Amino acid sequence: MEKNLDEKLNFVIDILGDKYPAPETELNHDSPFELLVATILSAQTTDVQVNKVTEELFKEYDSPDDFARLSPNELADKIKSIGLYRNKSKFIVESSRIILADFDGQVPRNFSDLLKLPGVGRKTASVVLVGAFSTPAFPVDTHVFRVSNRLGLASSDRVEEVEEQLKDLIPEELWADMHHWLIFHGREVCKARSPKCEICRLKNYCNYYQKKGG
DNA sequence: AACTCGGGGCA
DNA sequence: TGCCCAGAGTT
Q1: Are A79 and A108 contained in the same domain?
Q2: Does A169 carry a binding-site annotation?
Q3: Could you list the residue range(s) of the whole structural domain that residue A47 is in?
Q4: Is the pLDDT of residue A97 over 90?
Q5: Known PROSITE patterns for this protein (predicted)?
Q6: pLDDT at A93 over 70
Q7: Which of A9, A3, A7 is closest to A153 using CA atoms?
Q8: Are residues A143 and A124 in the same domain?
Q9: Helix A122-133, helix A159-169: angle, nearest 10
Q10: How many angstroms is C1' of C4 away from CA of A101?
Q11: Which nucleotide's C1' atom has the smallest distance to the CA of A44?
Q12: Are residues A10 and A59 in the same domain?
């Protein structure tokens, strides 16, 4: 028997009141620009790796000006320890140049301008808005997408729709906590490949677990 | 809608 | 050691 949405949501919110381990899911940064770079670097890779590379990078460079002067190849050499480094180097150098040319050297503070930067899609833009400018947004990455769908907090194969459903369902003051929890839960428990349903506190509320025959 | 970029983690 | 994982751009 499927529980209703409010009941599920309230149960998750109860859990948020408890202590749950804070994993390395945060991108460290000292400036909006550093967060932007870290977030572009983070596509398809883990935050732990990205934090290491970003920290090294920003010992040597820190402004859009510094990065705009680099050649993509030069930058690529410095970020080889993470994947997709040629693309990411081009994105970062080009984004830096656009920031200088079109945005007065400042990282844009709104969604549509952020999307004009190469390497910045809806997930990256949302992460920057929340992390650098405390603007309410709900970055839907694969963890948020998978967990929300499995649990039944959302139901769609389109990220945009999942984002809308979650924002409708969850009170705005809880967006940050819920987002953090969904990512934590997706990484540690509700994993893509072999989810640890047996230790999941939400299994009795979970569509995926019910369907599995748990 | 499918393909590409790429290294790190884990079976 | 080969398969799986994590976004954005291009064709």
Answers
A1: yes
A2: no
A3: 32-133
A4: yes
A5: ENDONUCLEASE_III_1 (PS00764)
A6: yes
A7: A9
A8: no
A9: 40
A10: 40
A11: C6
A12: no
> Do residues A99 and A40 both lie within one domain?
yes
User: What domain count does chain A have?
Assistant: 2
CB of A28 within 7 Å of some strand B atom: no
Cβ proximity of A98 and A64 under 8 Å: no
Q: What is the pLDDT of residues A35-78, one digit of tens each?
A: 999 999 999 998 889 999 999 999 999 999 999 999 999 999 99
Q: What tokens appear for A186 in the block?
A: 């997706």
What pTM was estimated for this model as a whole?
Answer: 0.94
Burial of A205 (0-12, 13-18, 19+ CB in 10 A): buried
Give CA–CA dist A170/A189, Å, rounded. 21
Q: Is residue A158 part of a domain?
A: yes
Q: Is A129 annotated as a binding residue?
A: no
Q: What single letter denotes the amino acid at residue A52?
A: K
Domain CATH for A90: 1.10.340.30
Residue A206, marked binder: yes
Nearest residue, CA→C1' of B9: A46
Could you give the 3-state DSSP secondary structure of residue A42? coil
